[in-house]
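Database export, one record per block. Field names are fixed; values are copied verbatim from the stored entry.
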Amino acid sequence: MTDEKKRLRKQMDHEMASIRFTSYQAVTIRTHPKSWKNRWTSFMNKEIEISLVMVMAVAIVFVGTIFAQGLFYEQESFENIEGSSFQKIGENYYTKEQLERIGLLNEN
């Protein structure tokens, strides 16, 4: 088998003798970057593969979290020193008058 390999190697060397690789320097710089600029360029030219299933799963979790936060607003009431009533909706505090004006407060 080694004789066969040697023969194939010799034939390949004979066929490739006339071919010269002229862009050795450019390819070496791109494949083995030394400066930060060349390293950054090499990093930015890499191909990445992102699974569509993972992207959709992350998007669904993100949208679900945003939607769930909107459904569960807390409403708290407290009295300040002057006695006016405040209510907390989400992270904001509103006076009784403000809520009546926009129609969010239903009093019986």
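Remark 1: Residues 2-69 form one domain.
Remark 2: The longest helix spans residues 52-71.
End of record.
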